[in-house]
Specification:
The structure is a single chain. About 45% of the residues lie in helices and about 15% in strands. It is an alpha+beta fold. The chain has one domain. The chain has a two-stranded antiparallel sheet. The longest helix has 13 residues. The protein is elongated and about 45 Å long. The two termini are about 15 Å apart.
Length: about 45
């Protein structure tokens, strides 16, 4: 998930480019290293 960090905006921080990225792996992505690697490689390829 990628999102704007609005608490910074509300406090008056003037950096509009600040992003916060959260991640969590559950189920098969947590247990299967090959599946997790494939998924993360697909995410990286879309940049």
């Amino acid at each position: 998930m990628e999102a704007d960090h609005f608490c910074m905006h509300w406090r008056g921080v003037k950096d509009d480019e600040t992003k916060m990225i959260n991640s969590v792996m559950r189920g098969s992505f947590l247990k299967d290293h090959n599946l997790r690697s494939e998924f993360l490689a697909l995410l990286n390829s879309r940049k």
